């Protein structure tokens, strides 16, 4: 530990289980600068569970899955919100707290699901299935949300679908999330063909191999995984639900079939659990770094703006979800 710079040494304690001592000096200066800038600018950092540990554990004020970030964004009182996550998350924060400055450190931090569908596609689905409500995953642009009746996240999709009290819904754009929810409800679900480029890469064969190589391992899979993967897993839930599962059940060995930083972030809290780590990186989440969070605060960039007419309709879809 003597290799650690005195600067930020106590912060290092939070991440020492997942960041080797020789790497910490690379992060320490940016961490200290961000903490200072947050005070100067009356800013908070909201970080998704897929952010790297030095962001998640050292500079974030609020962490969670998409649902928690949306709920908490609504009540932020600080002047500035930096969203350490992908663009749709920053848009959702802006929709729910429009008077705040919401900064996304890299505007290219997108999402393959958000890219899989346009507002025009949603209008065509509405024409094709008149009267069938449209449930849209939050992993979409504000323009797509604006064409939708209600949003959902992986944490509340079943509850949202069933809250509508209809026999049939359209669920956009994640085909696998729609198929996974369809196995849990009597509501008929019409899906779109969008996929998460990170979760679609896991296969049932991966799970079988893991069980062979690591006897007794508990397998948790995000619902954006293929239905065949989810059905072979021991548990499926949102990133927050997976994290809570580990905290509650304390499995001796666990594998999280999801983005790589999840295991690091959860492992910090649970030294008694062995994490097996085949994982896939989300290139969009990984565009957010300490350096660009610092620059966002120093230079007030990149402020999220949404056309007010679109924002009004998109906000309604998100607020309906939050009311479920
Ligand atoms: P959660 O809402 O479960 O955090 O998922 C967000 C996401 O982008 C998963 O890939
Ligand atoms: Fe989008 Fe998948 Fe990355 Fe989540 S992990 S932000 S769904 S591409």
The major beta sheet can be summarized as:
4 strands, parallel
CATH class category of the largest domain: Alpha Beta
What's the arrangement of strands in the largest beta sheet? 2-1-3-4
Estimate what percentage of residues fall within beta strands: 5-15%
Q: SSE order, as H and E?
A: HHEHEHEHEHEHEHEHEHEHEHEHEHH
Mean pLDDT: 96
Helix fraction, binned, reads 40-55%
Total helical segments: 15
CATH topology-level name of the largest domain? Rossmann fold
What is the approximate shape?
A: globular
Q: How does this structure look, described?
A:
- This protein has 15 helices and twelve strands.
- Strands 2-1-3-4 form a four-stranded parallel β-sheet, with helices on both faces.
- Mean pLDDT is 96; it is low at 1-6.
- The longest helix has 18 residues, at 24-41.
- With 324 residues, it is of the alpha/beta class.
- The chain folds into three domains: 6-110 and 285-299, Rossmann fold (3-Layer(aba) Sandwich); 114-196, Rossmann fold, CATH 3.40.50.10800; 199-276, Rossmann fold (3-Layer(aba) Sandwich), CATH 3.40.50.10800.
- The structure holds 1,3-dihydroxyacetonephosphate (13P) and iron/sulfur cluster (SF4).
- Iron/sulfur cluster binds at residues 86, 111-113, 139, 196-198, 224, 259, 282, 284-285.
Highlighted features:
12 strands, 324 residues, single chain, binds 1,3-dihydroxyacetonephosphate, 3 domains, Rossmann fold, globular, binds iron/sulfur cluster, alpha/beta, 4-stranded parallel β-sheet, disordered N terminus
